[in-house]
Amino acid sequence: MSKQFDVIVIGAGPGGYIAAIRAAQLGKTVACIDEWKNAAGGAAPGGTCTNVGCIPSKALLQSSEHFEHANLHFADHGISTGKVEIDVPKMIARKDAIVKQNNDGILYLFKKNKVTFFHGRGSFVRTVEGGYEIKVAGKEEESITGAQIVVATGSNARALPGVPFDEENILSNDGALRLGKTPKKLGLIGAGVIGLEMGSVWRRLGTEVTVLEGMPTFLPVVDEQIAKEAKKAFDKQGLKIEMGVKIGEVKSSKKGVSVAYTNAKGEAQTLDVDKLIVSIGRTANTIGLNAEAVGLQLDERGCIVVDDDCKTNLPGVWAVGDVVRGPMLAHKAEEEAVAVAERIAGQHGHVNFATLPSVIYTSPEVAWVGRTEQQLKAEGVKYKAGTFPFLANGRARALGDTTGMVKFLADAETDEILGVHMVGPMVSELISEAVVAMEFKASSEDIARICHAHPSLSESTKEAALAVDKRTLNF
C-alpha cells in the first residue's frame, strides 16, 4: 500500500519547498518530490533559482564586481594592489559551495518541519479515492498518494529554433554559470535580466561582450526614463548592446560560434565569438508530469491553467510559480506557494500581483514596482512624477557610485503611489520600502514625511517622493 499524505508537492524550487514547509506548519502531512541532482548525484533541492539561476548568478556578480573594484576603483581610495588576477575555477568553486549551502539548507528545513522528501521525478499516475496517485521515479520507483497536489515544476531555458543547447559553445543559463575560463569574446542573444547579468559578469573579467536583442527598445518592461539611464551606464562600461536585430543562422565549431544576423538598419552582419549564451525567455516545465493521465489542463504555451487562486481544472490540484501564468520570479512563486498552502488549510491566502518587485542585479542595479510612466500614459491615468539623482546623495558619493536615480509616480489627484522605479547602487534593497508603501496604499507625501537615516541611499527615496510635489531639499 502506498504512503498517504495530506499534501504532495511536485518540485522543490522556491514555489515547491515553500509550499511544502507552509503546509507542514499548518498541520498537514506533506511530501515533496524533486529530481534535481548535484555533481555527485545527491539531492539538490532549490530548483533553477538555487542551482542555475538567482543564487549562483549573484555569487558570480559579486566576485566579478570585487575584481572590477580592485582593478578600477581601489586606487581612488588610496589602496595599492599591484597586478590583480582572477582565478576563474576558484570563483566557480565558491559559487558551487554557496549553491550547496542553499541545497543543504532546504533539506534541513524539510527535516525541521517534518516534510518527507523524495529524490526523483514526480508524475501523475491516476485519480484514486480521496486524491491522486503520484509516481516517484528515483533510484527506486515508488508510488505515493495525496489528497491535495501542488505542482511547482518550474521552467526551462528556451532554445533558439533549430539551435539546441550543447552547454559547451551554445549555453543556457546553466552552461553560462559553469564556464571554466574567461572567454575572449562572448555573445549573448537576449538583453533581458539573464543576458545583462551574465554579460556583466564576464565583461568585468575582461571579456569582449556583445548582446543581440530582437526588440527595438531596451528593457521595454522598465520605465523608459530608467531604462535609458541604465543603457547609458552599460554603454559607458563597454557592454555592446545591439537592438532590433533578427537572428539568422548560428554555426558552432571547435573554433567557437558564428551568428549571422540582420541589424536594425537591415544590414547583414556576422558575430564571431568563443561562446554564445542564449537567454530568450523560459518555457513552463511540464515534461514528464503525465498531466494527460488525469486530464490536467495546459494552455497553448504549455503552462498549467489556473484561476486567480492557483486552482487547476482538477479538484485538489494546484499549481504555482513558473509553470503557471504571470512573471517568472522566485518571489512570486513563494508568495503563491504560501497562499495555496493556506487555502488548502481553509485560510485566505493573498498575493498582490500589482506590488511584485522586479530587480536586475547588474551594476547599476535596476529595480521597480508598480506601473511605468508609459503604462500610465497609455491608460490615460493622470499622474505626477518626481525624480532624484544619486549624484546628489551623500552616501552614494562616499561609496563612489553616483550612477542613476529614484523615480516616483503618483496619482495626480489622490497622490497614491502608482509606481516606483530605480537605477543605481543597491536599489534591490531600496525597492522594498516602495513595495510596503504601495501595499498600504501610501501617498508620495507619506514617504516624503518619514524620517530616513542620514547619510543613507534611502534618502534618495525620500527626496524623489518630495520631488513629486516639487520640493526636493538636496537637488
TrEMBL record:
Recorded GO CC terms: cytoplasm
InterPro entries reported in the protein's UniProt record: Class-I_Pyr_Nuc-Dis_Oxidored, FAD/NAD-bd_sf, FAD/NAD-binding_dom, FAD/NAD-linked_Rdtase_dimer_sf, Lipoamide_DH, Pyr_nuc-diS_OxRdtase, Pyr_nucl-diS_OxRdtase_dimer
Broad class of enzyme this protein falls into: oxidoreductase
Disulfide bond sites: C49-C54
Binding site for FAD: K58, G122, T153, G154, S155, D322, M328, L329, A330, H331
Cofactor(s) this protein cannot do without: FAD
UniProt keyword annotations, A-Z: Cytoplasm, FAD, Flavoprotein, NAD, Nucleotide-binding, Oxidoreductase, Redox-active center
Positions of the Pyridine nucleotide-disulphide oxidoreductase dimerisation domain: 357-465
UniProt-annotated location(s): Cytoplasm
Cofactor: how bound: Binds 1 FAD per subunit.
Catalytic activity entry: N(6)-[(R)-dihydrolipoyl]-L-lysyl-[protein] + NAD(+) = N(6)-[(R)-lipoyl]-L-lysyl-[protein] + NADH + H(+)
GO biological process, one term: 2-oxoglutarate metabolic process
Domain annotation FAD/NAD(P)-binding: ranges: 5-337
Molecular function GO terms recorded: dihydrolipoyl dehydrogenase (NADH) activity; flavin adenine dinucleotide binding
Miscellaneous note of the record: The active site is a redox-active disulfide bond.
Protein name: Dihydrolipoyl dehydrogenase
UniProt source species: Comamonas terrigena
